[in-house]
Design brief:
This protein is α/β, with parallel strands linked by helices. The chain has three domains: about 220 residues, Rossmann fold (3-Layer(aba) Sandwich); about 160 residues, P-loop containing nucleotide triphosphate hydrolases (Rossmann fold, 3-Layer(aba) Sandwich), CATH 3.40.50.300; about 55 residues, Alpha-Beta Plaits, CATH 3.30.70. The protein is built from 17 helices and 14 strands. The protein has a six-stranded mixed sheet, sandwiched between helices. It has a four-stranded parallel sheet with strand order 2-1-3-4, with helices on both faces. Bound molecules: guanosine-5'-triphosphate (GTP) and magnesium ion (MG). The site of guanosine-5'-triphosphate has 24 residues, from helix 10.
Length: about 475
Amino acid sequence: MREQYENTREDLSSDAPSTGELDLEARQALRRVSGIASTELEDVTDAEYRRLRLERVVLVGVWTEGSIEEAENSLDELAQLAETAGSEVVDGLIQRRSKPDAGTFIGSGKVKELKDTVEALGADTVIADGELSPGQLIALEKAVNVKVIDRTALILDIFAQHAKSAEGKAQVELAQLQYLLPRLRGWGDAMSRQGGSNGGVGLRGPGETKLETDRRRIRAKVAKLRRELAKLTVTRETKRDSRTRNRVPGVAIAGYTNAGKSSLLNALTGAGILVQDALFATLDTSTRRSRTSEGREYTVTDTVGFVRHLPHQLVEAFRSTLEEVAESDLVVHVIDGSHPDPLGQAEAVRTVLAEVGADEIPELVVVNKLDLVDPDTMLQLRSDWPDAVFVSAHSGEGIDKLRDAIEDALPQPNTTLTVCIPYVRGDLVSRLRSRGEVLTTEHRGDGTVITARVDDALAGELRAFVLETD
Ligand SMILES: Nc1nc2c(ncn2[C@@H]2O[C@H](COP(=O)(O)OP(=O)(O)OP(=O)(O)O)[C@@H](O)[C@H]2O)c(=O)[nH]1
Ligand SMILES: [Mg+2]
């Protein structure tokens, strides 16, 4: 497994488009500084405190159910996450067990092997594929003698590196502090078992007083972030309301991280959004306008990707962003056809969609990366998703078909009416063009006579000018 992981780091950003390059540079400039488990820092709410230091890492997973392929996929994904966070994966170990060890996550025999591997490769961090209890983290750290973090902390760290907007940053910080709070308590418990004495590596917790101060500080910061986010949510809702008032139908692109959502938005609308072969390249939603072949306007929104075991703190913190998806007229669910387990990824996405109440929205499944798919896999994909649209954002294959499928799935204008719009109301004529489907136009002395298909909302606005309705 070692060969597989080494030298993969250089490939991370090979095909970022020029528009995203600045983003990318800024991201790469942000390298790790100090440890999440460090107790030396004065203020635990400090951003520095929450940043992970990961350089040479060894991954460790427990395989409890399913096939060995599934276990390996999960560890591969963890490797990609670790690389996205800027570390070098030097080895990965999987242990077959009925369930994770309550004390040290992996069993004691495997702990010894892990310690030897860490020492032999000069690793500085172990990343466990799961969410470990505070006690497990401490015990494992003590046994292997280097820092141990879990999948949740890793994902939180990536989100922290990638967040750009004020809202995104606040959301991530809130999630991080919530993750940190019980873990501070963990160190506290260890401390009291030690009778307050210094318990050695991993147990050198803050003194009781500092612990209390830290907790108070975190709680205060959490409350402040909640207030800030509430304000930002109002701003977002105002923006969204004005969009709803104009009733431009909205399409949300959702899907597993790295499936090609941003690439598809770029292919559909020519938007220059950062595309990167890294997980969670996109954290801020971006919306672009597009038009149907008949000229009706709609919006397309790129969203944050999903991942298996997305930390619940993050789903909670990103709820307002994810709610954009729940309010769209259509969810375009992008699936990476070249991934070994597309069904598993799709299932993980549907779980999160359901959590934010977006499972009732009509869904259009799009299987992407066709250019990488061999004929056998293609047959399998077609039988798994008989109604999907098959595309390649890279070659452009299927993109026209996707555009048609989106058009068909958008709310349809179902009323045909003929109106006479006075020349002073040029604004209404352009609204008709952008939101309805104009069938005929004729210029008369008293105004423009237009026959068009419109949706109910637009029909209401035009009521005063109607000559005939079908
Ligand atoms: N070969 C191939 N690669 C693709 C295709 N579409 C996207 N990719 C690559 O897949 C990687 C991820 O693409 P993105 O568009 O950033 O994916 P995303 O779903 O927006 O990812 P996140 O924002 O990180 O969740 C990039 O390296 C893309 O170049 C495709 O059709 N074919
Ligand atoms: Mg993206």
